[in-house]
Amino acid sequence: MDSIVNIKISLIDDFKNHPFLVNDDDTLKELAKSIKENGLLNPIIVRPKNNNRYELISGHRRKLAMQLNGIDEIDAVIKELDDDEATIYMVDSNIYRERILPSEKAFAYKMKIDALKHQGKTLSPKGTKQHSVDQIDDTKTQIYRYIRLTYLISDLLKLVDNSVLHDKRTYLTIGIKPAVELSYLTKDEQNLLYSTFIYDDLTPSHGQAIKIRELSKNKKLNYDSLVDVLSQIKGNQKEQISFNKEKIESVLPLDLLKRDKRYIEQFIIEAILKYKEIKKEELEKIDINNLKI
Question: CA Rg, the chain, in Å?
């Protein structure tokens, strides 16, 4: 059985590239209060480093809660672990928390897979190499979906996290499956996607994401083709106002028609505002119920 020792918190370094967030929020304050009243019920896990310091494997929230209470020493179990063993232990100690963001799970799984591979693919009884991913509790499909999220730019990954953090009726969110499709796009294409999502206040369904990936594969992904895909009404979207494209384009400057839809939309908005400013009194007299269409 591992023995428990008391270590100065100042000698403990956080795990390198720790994928799980440790937020100074209400739950952390509740943990600090519980520790203050009842003491630390579970010791943290650390491993020794070469410079007489320690690396924290499990217990980042407990360590921070102790610091909030002004305590400078903490009970710990010291384990002799190499880099790969430490990574696997760290992930397994955190992966089943009550709420984990998709981004946390994504990078945690990637770290564990990499550690398992580096540790060596184990041989099956028949002598063939067995992929070490089998040792993880989640299904292979789920694991690889999460790992694909690590290929998203940070802005898009935040929209995936929003699906857990926020109500999709008030925040832009992207589901796991469409996010996986978008992860195969280049960084430049992903930046285009993000700016378009924010500008048009829309994100794709899984089916739309598949179409976007296909456009990328065929070198046809641009702002206009992206908007064409996103403009297809989804069940959870409000119906959009549509206009006769030919009639609108017939009165626009020819040079403007060469620009993408964002410039055309902005031009129309500014033109309407300018016209409204000039014709304010006349516009107020118009009876919209008697307009001839």
Answer: 27
Residue 252 and residue 199 in one domain: no
pLDDT tens-digit series, residues 212-251: 999 999 999 999 999 999 988 665 455 555 566 677 778 8
Q: With respect to residue 28, please indicate whether it lies within any of the assigned structural domains.
A: yes
Quote the CA–CA distance of 207 and 181 in Å, as a whole number.
10
Strand partners, 7: 74
| 195 and 269 together in one domain | no
For 54, phi then psi, to 5°, come to: -130, 155
Task: Kindly state whether residues 226 and 251 are assigned to the same domain.
Answer: no
Question: How many Å apart are CA 70 and CA 185, to the nearest integer?
Answer: 47
- CA 128, CA 125: separation in Å to the nearest integer? 8
Mind giving me the DSSP string for 201-259?
A: T----HHHHHHHHHHHHTT--SHHHHHHHHTSPPTTSPPPP---HHHHHHTS-HHHHTS
The verdict on residue 189 lying in a domain is: yes
CA distance 50 to 76: 18
Residue pointed to by tokens 């955190």: 94
The 8-class DSSP code of residue 123 comes to: B
The rounded distance, in Å, linking the Cα atoms of 159 and 157 is 5
> 72 and 3 in one domain?
yes
Residue 77 carries which DSSP code?
E
- pLDDT above 60 (res 161): yes
- Amino acid code (one letter) for 27: T
Residue in this structure with the two tokens 């499990």, named with its chain if needed:
58
Does residue 69 fall inside a structural domain?
yes
Looking at the structure, tell me whether residues 170 and 193 fall in a common domain: yes
Residue of higher predicted confidence among 112 and 291: 112
Q: Is residue 46, in this structure, part of any structural domain at all?
A: yes
Give the angle 145-219-153 at the CA atoms, nearest 5°. Answer: 40
Q: Which domain holds residue 175?
A: 165-230
User: Residues, the chain, total?
Assistant: 293
